[in-house]
Amino acid sequence: MNDTASSEDDALIDAIERFLAGEVRPVAIALEQADEYPKAIVEQMRDMGLFGAIIPEAYGGLGLSAQTYARLIETIAAEWMSLSGIINSHLIMASAVLRFGTEAQKEYFLPRFARAELRGGIALTEPDCGTDLQAIRTVARREGEHYLVNGAKTWITNGLHGNCFALLVKTDPKADPRHRGMSLFIAEKGPGFSVPRKLPKLGYRGIDTVEMLFQDYRIPAERLVGGVEGRGLQQILGGLELGRINVAARGVGVARSAYEEALSYSQQRKTFGKPICEHQAIQLKLADMATRVQAARLLVDSAARAYDAGRRCDLEAGMAKLFATEAAMENAAESLRIHGAYGYSREVRVERLYRDAPLLAIGEGTNEMQRLIIARRLLDAAAPRQQ
């Protein structure tokens, strides 16, 4: 990265930090507790170009590298994790078009994604399948120049306030292997596309998560990503590499925030005549928390570098996602312990971090699945080469 790019990236992160401190921090607790969508904040994010963060400048985006994008997401998640999800799901959809779409699809969708004229996310998960995406049952049947879609999706981020989604379907339910019958469409809301309900959640509140229903929903054949059936699973998995880097960066942000809250509180709270940071038990916790943050950040940076270089990075992204999200879980719990009863109060940020962190260990592929991905990649690398 050249010095000019680095300077511009630093300036962007500084601007985001000022925005978060001035516009988000004063209202985040109230919005989160009310589970209220932050419309005014989202409009400001749109004006800052964040919905086009990784979209190339040629298509109207900011053209950020994955490294800078990860820094951006860490910064946002450290203040309020829900905001990072509003742009992440949207940019996974954009990444799928950028990497696998036809040139006509790129020219049509990417500028609209960057302006947030079309904004949304990814519609993958269904009531009876999460990690096993090949088990989806939503079907798209070709009828002339359109496809007719029927099925249901659940746990879809941005589903209520968004208007466009990367929709994974079966175009050939009888295909063997199953992935050869899966296709990806860019689906705008319209007749036959409904949102029956918003799902209540433990954490990650303020952002809308919904169920979707498709009943004879007609979508033009030109919205099939890449223009060829049967490639949908590979296309969305390619997008999820960026998604896992994002979730890992969120983990760093939550872990960092939990650590910083604990460090600050430990210097103020006194027991037995001295600040609790002077007690060895608290010092041990703080040391572990700070180490987790730094180690997680380095793993995220390694995955982002691999992504930027165009290399396969499911191993690096899996490691980053696994470690950083577990760091978020551990740091949130330790921070709450350090805060004592005060940390159990809904009036402080630590309580929210404690509720937000578990989602990170589940979303974009559970951490159990990440371990399997990591192990399989390691075993593939260690397998004897055939002569």
Quick structural overview:
The chain has 387 residues and is α+β, with helices and mostly antiparallel strands.
What does it look like?
The protein is α+β, with helices and mostly antiparallel strands and 387 residues long. The protein folds into three domains: 3-114, Acyl-CoA dehydrogenase/oxidase, N-terminal domain (Butyryl-Coa Dehydrogenase, subunit A, domain 1), CATH 1.10.540.10; 120-230, Butyryl-CoA Dehydrogenase, subunit A, domain 2, CATH 2.40.110.10; 234-382, Butyryl-CoA Dehydrogenase, subunit A, domain 3, CATH 1.20.140.10. The chain is built from eleven helices and nine strands. Strand 8 (270-271) and strand 9 form a beta hairpin. Helix 4 packs antiparallel against helix 5, helix 5 packs antiparallel against helix 7 and helix 9 runs antiparallel to helix 10 (349-360). The chain is globular, with a radius of gyration of 21 Å.
Features:
11 helices; 3-stranded mixed β-sheet; single chain; Butyryl-CoA Dehydrogenase, subunit A, domain 3; 4-stranded antiparallel β-sheet; alpha+beta; Butyryl-CoA Dehydrogenase, subunit A, domain 2; Butyryl-Coa Dehydrogenase, subunit A, domain 1; 387 residues; 3 domains
